[in-house]
Amino acid sequence: MSRALAKVGDQIIAETDTWETVEGNIYFPxxxxxxxxxxxxxxxxxxxxxxxxxxxxxxxxxxxxxxNAVWYYKEPYDAAKNIKDHIAFYKNxxxxxxx
Length: 99
Fold this sequence. Notes:
- Residues 6-91 form the DUF427 domain.
- The chain is mainly β.
- 0% of the residues lie in helices and 57% in strands.
- It has a single domain, classed as Metal Binding Protein, Guanine Nucleotide Exchange Factor, Chain A (Beta Complex).
- The protein has a 6-stranded antiparallel β-sheet, with no helix packed on it. A 3-stranded antiparallel β-sheet has the order 2-1-9, with no helix packed on it.
């Protein structure tokens, strides 16, 4: 069985054995976050013509804030309905490991 991990330093912040891959990004189920209190709302919003409007969270780990490191589509368009209730991490801010 394979699994995907999201890590900040040595700390695993998300872990799952089921995920969606879209445009080279792993979308973790939202329930894969080990401690949701590390997520901080962000005002950033972006738009993708086929996925819809993305919202962002920052991550606070060990007193360090990683701005807008997480994104999700609260109401994805039909073409991206497989990533509803999933989140993705910027690979330049969070280490993503597939095992």
